[in-house]
Write a structure and sequence with these properties.
The chain is mainly alpha-helical and about 120 residues long. The protein is built from six helices and two strands; from the N terminus they run αβααααβα. The chain has one domain. The protein starts with a helix and ends with a helix.
């Protein structure tokens, strides 16, 4: 049940990023909410499996940059989620540039944190 809540919170955050950040779009599908949900699912799975390993490997450079490199790791995870959702489900999640992905990862992080704090069971 916790995973479904996390997936929905991430899907809402991806939807907010598509809506707010220019250069992040869902192309070629009439049901854009399906693409957002699939990309949210891919991002949730990546955040649970691959992201902790990358955070551990990038810990020295993250400490040197006072945590700013953590945003680059989030951007890489967004690119990976877009690649997986486009490759496996052909949803048409489009990222135009690194800058768009960088700002989208910031939006996704903030909205996910807010959503998870609202729906978290203590």
């Amino acid at each position: 049940m916790q995973f479904i809540i996390r997936w929905l919170a991430t899907a809402v955050a991806v939807g907010a990023a598509v809506w707010l950040v220019p250069g992040i779009a869902v192309l070629g599908t009439t049901e854009s909410w399906i693409a957002v949900a699939i990309t949210g699912l891919a991002l949730s799975l990546i955040d649970m499996s691959i992201k902790p390993l990358l955070q551990l490997l990038s810990l020295p450079i993250t400490c040197l940059t006072f945590g700013i490199f953590y945003l680059v790791v989030n951007t890489a995870m967004l690119y990976l989620a877009a690649w997986l959702s486009n490759g496996m489900f052909n949803v048409g999640f489009y990222i135009s540039s690194f800058g768009s992905a960088f700002f989208a990862s910031i939006v996704i992080s903030i909205v996910s944190a807010i959503m998870n704090s609202i729906v978290a069971d203590n």
